[in-house]
Amino acid sequence: MNKLAIAFLIITISLTSFSQSGNLDLSFGIAGKVTTAVGNGNDVGSAIAVQSDGKIVVTGNTYNGTNFDIVVLRYNTNGTLDNTFGTSGKVTTAIGSGTETGNAVAVQTDGKIIVAGYSYTGTNADFAVVRYNANGTLDNTFGTLGKVVTPIGSAADIAYGMVLQADGKIVLVGNSLNGTNSDFALVRYTTTGVLDATFGTGGKVTTPVGSSSDYAYSVLVQPDGKLIAGGWSNDGFNINFALVRYTINGGLDNSFGTAGIATATGGGADNYGRCIALQADGKVVMTGDVTNGADYNFGTTRFNSNGMVDNTFGTAGIVNTSLGSGDDDPYGLVVQRDGKILVAGASFNGANFDFASVRYLANGSMDNTYGNAGKVITSMGSGSDYCNAILLQADNKVVLAGYSANGINDDVALLRYSNVLLGITKNNSSQNDWIIYPNPGEGVLQLKNITSFRVDKVEVYNALGELVLIENTVGDTCMQIDLAKQPKGIYWIRVYTQNAISCLRYQLF
Q1: Are 92 and 132 in contact (CB under 8 A)?
Q2: Structural domain tally of the chain?
Q3: Which of 105, 293, 306, 458 is the most exposed place for a label (fewest CB within 10 A)?
Q4: Residue 462 burial by CB count (10 A; 0-12/13-18/19+): exposed, middle or buried?
């Protein structure tokens, strides 16, 4: 191997897992669990993100004695609070005089943290977004002293989801009351918190999906820049999973579903879609609450890239999973780099709720290598424990966030599980057969196989496990990959050849 190859030989990930997927990670918190009291009242974790250095950021709300404020917490990789952030790892933010909450969180390439949710103005709720510096102070270059409040209509407007585009623009999704019922609502801001006039009408888009109320909870951006919003729609008879795809400028994408709108049942009369995730092949997975006649199950469906339900998934495109003796409510979803699907939420055990997660194979069947026949249920304490979000770390460990009752009130709660690493090499190929240079680098990198294997396909995933680039039928032993427009951080490059699948680590700085 030449000196250049040795100098830039990639740091590879281990191919051996020493613990069962779904077991509590004993290196995190106390036996895999962390609870955090912020104030003297109820504290709730609603959303979670990971920084490029592996630190974990959680947002939600905390009771201030009168109403709720936004709370942001940052944890070190071992689950301890990060004392370099805010006050002992905690930041609380009041926007106005009423209740506010953080429903979504994202970390920019420069380390700044964005939280989205809503702020109650005294009359109704409006979309709200706050940006913090890396140390937890408000970023005064964003909006008004770090805060932006945006009314969509004249009544209640609540943001539930958020995504950062590759150009740094910020998209919020939620619902807006039109005077009669609610519609899907999206807002896009520039990097300084100003409404983006190139999006929709003055930066805002509302979409009626059914004949009654429609609620959007999640949003994602495709590699081509198109946006997909997911939630549920009431057609006047039933409640259905609903997706809407938008062009880059916020118009409905007529190549998707029917005039940009796709709906599906989860197998019951009421199907409350909540979370969406994009697969490497462009298919969209969606999960939510699905009634079974007596209570609710985890319900998961999959749409093809054109908006049609994928009938190769589960039974006619639907998978319903019962975990406990009562309601099972999913609030988190990720697609792993190996195509397996993780869904997380809460399950009623007959007395209260516990954290719950399930893992499916790519075809929708249960993955028996995860937990107990594909299911994991974990109690934090003797009261109700409710999971609101899931995160897949760069090392593939699974983090769940929500809240746990301590006997008096609720605390923010996190769990971390072990997980089999991805990118398992087949046959006799070695990770050391690959060179990436320069690594670390600024985004334009060379990928070379020193044993003359020809590349069939390359997939690139960010630290959240989201697909950011795919190259099909490359057919060469050396190629260039351009990630210069992607945010700084850790990326995983999955390389397919005739003989092997290899997963390689790359750092963009």
Answers
A1: no
A2: 2
A3: 293
A4: buried
Transcribe 422-434 into DSSP letters: S-PPPTT--GGGE
**pLDDT tens, 272-313?**
999 999 999 999 999 999 988 888 999 999 999 999 999 999
Q: Please tell me whether the overall predicted TM-score, pTM, comes out greater than 0.90 for this model.
A: no
Q: H or E segment at 242? A: strand 239-246
- 436 found inside a domain: yes
Q: Among 284, 302, 332, where does a domain finish?
A: 332
Count the helices and strands in the chain (H runs, E runs): 1, 35
Give the mean pLDDT of the chain: 89
d(CA 177, CA 94): 24
CA dist., res. 361 & res. 241, Å (int): 21
Q: Is residue 413 part of a domain?
A: no
Evaluate if residue 465 carries a pLDDT over 70. Answer: no
Q: Which residues pair with 387 in a beta bridge?
A: 402
Pair 441, 8: CB distance under 8 Å = no
Rg (CA), the chain: 22
| CATH for 168 | 2.120.10.10
In a domain, 237, yes or no: yes
pLDDT at position 16 over 60: no
Bridge partners, residue 355, by sequence: 346, 378
Tell the burial category of 173 from Cβ atoms under 10 Å away from its Cβ (0-12, 13-18, 19+). Answer: buried
- The residue among 270, 297, 332 that closes a domain is 332
Q: Which residue has the higher pLDDT, 235 or 340?
A: 340
Q: What are phi and psi of 4, to 5 degrees?
A: -65, -40
CATH of the domain at 438: 2.60.40.3080
Q: Which residues, listed in sequence order, are joined to residue 58 by a DSSP beta bridge?
A: 48, 73
Cβ contact 271:239 at 8 Å: yes
**Contact (CB, 8 A) for 271 and 232:** yes
Tokens describing residue 173: 């999704």
Cβ neighbours for 157, distance < 8 A, ≥ 6 positions apart: 118, 124, 125, 126, 127, 150, 151, 174, 175, 176, 177, 185
User: Structural domain of residue 198, as residue ranges?
Assistant: 33-332
